[in-house]
Amino acid sequence: MEVLTTYAILKITWWLLLGVLLMALAIMVGMDMGVGTILRYVGRTDEDRRIALNIIGPHWDGNQVWFVLGGGAIFAAWPTLYGTAFSGLYVVMLVLLWSMILRPLGFEYRSKLASAKWRNLWDWTLFVSGFVPMLVYGAAIGNILVGFPFHFAQEGTAVSVYTGSFITLFNPFAILAGLVSVSMSTLMGSLMLMNRGEGALYERARRVAGLAGPLALILFTIAGIWVANMKGFVINGTLDPGMQASPLTNLPVSIVSGGWLQNYANHPILWLLPLLTYISVMLATLLARMGRSHVAWWLGALGWIGILGTVAAATFPFLMPSVTDPAHSLMVWNASSSANTLGWMLGWTIVFVPTIIVYTSWCYWVMRGKVTAKQVAEDDHAY
Amino acid sequence: MVPSDLVVDLSRWQFAATALYHFLFVPLTLGLSFILAAMETVYVTTGRTIYKEMAQFWGKLFAINFALGVATGLTMEFEFGTNWSTYSYYVGDVFGAPLAVEGLMAFFMESTFVGLMLLGWHRLNRVQHLTVTWLVALGSNLSALWILIANGFMQDPHGATFNPFTQRLELTSFMHLLFNPDAQAKFVHTSLAGYVTAAIFVVGISAWYLSKGRHIELARRSLRMAALFGVLSSVGVITLGDALGFIDGGKQPTKLAAMEGLWETEQAPASFNAIAFPSQEEQRNLFAIKIPYLLSILVKHDLSTPIVGINQLEQEAAQRIKNGIPALMALQAIQKNPDNKQALATFDAHKQDLGYAFLLKRYAPDVAKATPTQIEKAAKDTIPEVWILFWSFRLMVAAGFAMLVFLIFATLYSLKTDCRRTGFLKIAPWFIPVPFFACEMGWVTAEVGRQPWTVYEQLPTWISASTHSASYMIFSLTGFVLLYTCFIVVEMYLMTKFVRQGPDEPGSRAGGSLAGQPVFAHPLLAPHRD
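Structure tokens for the assembled complex are given below, as produced in the milestone run.
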């Protein structure tokens, strides 16, 4: 194997960091959104719903920054991907953003008025802003495997042109992937409610966890069989990983049946990733039923890592393959920022991501323990 | 395939609408977070519980405002990708970096600790809670710093160079990006404007309580703290506004000339148009009241430098367009053959005017065959909308001085030992909208003045937009306006309600309770029993 240049190593490092971000996003924001999705089921009374909201209340805002940071990091490290993906996914992005902006208001405004109508309205917005973003998140990842209808036009500079309609993005496979994501977020949300809830709320959350885990695994399995039989993207010959990051180079890419399994065929060790998903999600479900929700939560997080790792292993080095013109596909090699930007951003990340993890952990530690109806009723600021 | 004029206009309207909405909430967050921190500091150091009540009461209003700041900020970050994909591609290597660092360093800190600030009163000791409050204030202000560093790059690009092989701007010096004078001056100007906004918000509401004879202790102390904070910040805003004018005067001459309604070059000492009716079509002012000497003093800080007018700047632009043509043609040759040494040499000789050639491309897709009329048209584009800038700038400045005077009155009032009901208390609540208006006008001056560029002299706005259909854009613009308008109605309603309600008796909850009522049982779920 040839020696990789510094630039190529930076690109791979950022691909790994992007993975870490997408995993943190799925685990942390996904958990809060899962609570939103099941809020109307687990909370039958206003009191129960307020407890559920106050369990994630001190943390939802901080957790949401993983979503913001995901966007910012893609902008900084993969600007071509940022512009191409988000403009191509226009209507989907709008649906995602419009549902996401309901969340802060749902949390902050819901309990401010003592009116059943008012609170019911915001409970619905919390459902929408929990369910829809996780569906879109999964669908976006599913579409990486399906491929996107776009190409680049030359206007003195690269202009990405998207040729599909918005409905293209909600193809059956993408919806399946979206449902995997929704069930995983529901699992994580219900485990968090078990961690810090009591009584009827706890029991209902346990019931949800017991169903969401197996559902996620069944959908994941169907998706796996589907991928094995779908057309995937492969590189013919070799590409220089240290190449200039221009999307206009004609890349030797072709679409072949079962192409997404090529990496697995070349490196059988990668099969450990889907295996990790099965083992951890199964154990999480089992422990949730036994009431060991803390350990189950961490296993659920491992399950997310397994799922996203499985997709990443299949698609590397593709980020956004083009079905219209495979030669215009975006890869780790041709869609990244310059070496200087990647280097600087790596420096900031090395300093701040551990810092963030430390203070976030401290916040969870401070707010630890069961949330009770009495606390919620007495606290002037409670959600 | 480039976006049509209609799509570009609609994209601009959408970005402007979402940014102006977002900017209704940001300044208040920036300032109020410091006022909360100051109040709590007094509480922790002196142990007087009235200051804790103050921090908690204003904290409630802070949270209502903060939610909308977060919500509307979310969409802004992603709009670069959704609506400005060519811009994202072209400058993401540079512009994306400060946005990402903002998330890492500032937004994370602010958002993580705001939950603890609001819900951690019983869980943290006094010093811990105070630290958390200060971290929220620090986080929100650092956030503004990084966003304005990104914006500073759009206003006056530093620390980047165009790479003809990747066809985009690439970062050359992070330090130059960071210490961009425009960004630094604008950060201080903008964050101080936020402090003034919050100060007037607190002064106005406190004055209302005093005029009603309610919550006197809390209102008096709040008014005094806010008024002092406001006066100091107000002086800073004006000083930094002057510095910003001085910097922009050197770096963005078209913005300056348009702000001043200066069509023809003024020999030193230049006079200042206090009031004018500029006509873009006739390229002159239909009417103007001039104050001699003042303009030179204001923008050049001397009496000997002439100030170049719009008509002369337009001629200079035409020259730069002509000079940019070989750069764009060389770039196209490099795209076909990256080893073309001659094209590379030509490109290097003309690259500083590449952006100007893009302006021409709008009228002459093949720039090599451009006619003088087309060049003239493109040169006209370099002048932003004069009447908007002229008036938004003046309204901002007028509001700025009015606020300084208002805050001086507020400080004088707060020094009185008895809180007699005076005319000031009656007027003060009506003053609350003024800083919000001034902030919006400031944004308009800065951003409309940057036109026709997204990145000054580097990348025109018209080429930056995504290639969407107009129907998509109408759909999204309508959606945003409807949604945001609903939000603002809800927010104003809650704010008014909580202000009227005032600080509670300790222990009683603000929201009211529906405890124990099974009001939410859904028909489909109702039969289920636990």
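Residues 427 and 518 of chain B are 47 Å apart (CA to CA). The longest helix of chain B spans residues 5-46. Further analysis is deferred to the final report.
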